[in-house]
DNA sequence: GAGGTATTTAGAAATTTTTCTAAATACCTC
DNA sequence: GAGGTATTTAGAAAAATTTCTAAATACCTC
């Protein structure tokens, strides 16, 4: 729930790429990992950061763990950013 | 222009607080620094990160350097986030 | 339950980030 | 231009992050 964790999670390129992969739907840890030139342990580490930030949710099925985007936290971040730029008057001349 | 720099800049709590201070208008480096329990050198470091990420602009006036928010980069970040959650169909039940 | 696949955890090394102190730069006023 | 204030730069220490290898856990199938 803290922005610290959320923005920190978003600050790594690998984790942003994982989030982009999950746009189209859920994927298993293994499927995610096979898109990167890194060990499964490293991918697992990144997934744990995203999970702690609640940017993704997991659901286990058989021998796999599937990950999917958690849109609501992304929306909270957008609200924070929107509040940053809104509330100004001298923004109109672009 | 890269999201790496931008999100990294946003990932630090001090820098997010600086951005929030700038919501109301521009402030000098000294004014920003006096709100934190840190040396001016450290504040200068954080400002340099925000500047590199183009989240703030500076304008010099007399003996002061004033900083202000750069809304356009914030908006680019919001677009990226919006694209992440948009494009899904199973987002409606909530 | 034995063996197999999927994923995570632990521990360590390399890199990056954050902060400080001290010194440098810049520009202003007299 | 001398002295003063505002800010940045340099260099170093401490802390956090990212990655790996090796081992552990979890759960599935036969």
Summarize this entry quickly.
Chain A has 94 residues and is an alpha+beta fold. Chain A has helices at 3-10, 13-21, 29-33, 40-52, 71-85, and strands at 27-28, 56-61, 64-69.
Spatial order of the strands forming the largest sheet of chain A: 1-3-2
Look at the structure and give the mean pLDDT of chain A.
91
Q: Quick one: how many beta strands of chain A?
A: 3
Level-1 CATH class name of chain A: Mainly Alpha
Report on the structure:
Two copies of one chain form a homodimer. By secondary structure, chain A is α+β, with helices and mostly antiparallel strands. Chain A has one domain: Arc Repressor Mutant, subunit A. Chain A has five helices and three strands, in the order H-H-E-H-H-E-E-H. In chain A, strands 1-3-2 form a three-stranded antiparallel sheet. In chain A, helix 1 runs antiparallel to helix 4. The first copy, chain A, is elongated and about 45 Å long. Chains A and B meet through helix 1, helix 2 and helix 5 of A and helix 1, helix 2 and helix 5 of B. The structure holds a DNA duplex (30 and 30 nucleotides).
